[in-house]
Amino acid sequence: MSKYGLAIALGYLGLIPFVLLALLTLIFFEQPFTRQLLLPLFEHYSALIIVFLSGALWAEALVGRSIGGGKTLLIISNALMLLVWLMLSLQVFADLALRLSLYSALYLLLIISEARLRNFNPNSGQVNSFKRYQTMRWVLTLTVVSCHLILIFSLGK
Questions:
Q1: Do 130 and 120 touch, CB atoms closer than 8 A?
Q2: C-alpha to C-alpha distances, 114 to 54, 119, 134, nearest whole angstrom
Q3: What is the pLDDT of residue 62?
Q4: What is each CA distance from 156 to 25, 98, 149, in whole angstroms?
Q5: Is 5 exposed, middle or buried (0-12, 13-18, 19+ CB in 10 A)?
Q6: What is the distance between the alpha carbons of residues 97 and 156, in angstroms, rounded to a whole number?
């Protein structure tokens, strides 16, 4: 398996906690362990994945051919990590539905930034691999945001 194939497989496997925890939350919403266990697990996994994806921008910024020499990706990466940290730490973000909404926005910001700031030589062999990777990232992002929206609406009941 190529490294791009592995990245795609790992990406889809990374959806399992989002989908599973969202489904379990819907099924067992009235149970005490949902708020004590399922929702915190979902939120922390989401925060960790945002930080992981933000950190992955560093490799693109330092090695890739990003527009703007990679500086914009480095700034976005650090800003997102700091924002997630503040959201988990400050009382102003005490509302879980607010945090989940903000996480959803951060996922969308990440994928849009990644797509707009990458720059490939159209004659290189990387273009096809990148297109497959980018398609996977959009599918993952939209699935993750959907899981967040399901939980946000569930919390509003």
A1: yes
A2: 10, 10, 9
A3: 80
A4: 13, 11, 11
A5: exposed
A6: 8
Q: What is the pLDDT of residue 126?
A: 62
How many folded domains does the chain comprise?
1
The b/e string for 106-116 (b: 16+ C-beta within 10 A; e otherwise) is bbebbbebbee
CB 96 within 8 A of CB 155: yes
Which pLDDT score is estimated for 58?
A: 83
Q: Is the pTM of this model over 0.85?
A: yes
Q: Are 44 and 7 in contact (CB under 8 A)?
A: no
- Length of the chain, please? 157
pLDDT tens, residue by residue, 85-142: 999 998 888 899 999 999 999 999 999 888 776 665 555 566 666 778 888 999 999 9
Distance CA 67, CA 135 (A): 20
Expressed as residue numbers, the domain containing 35 is: 3-155
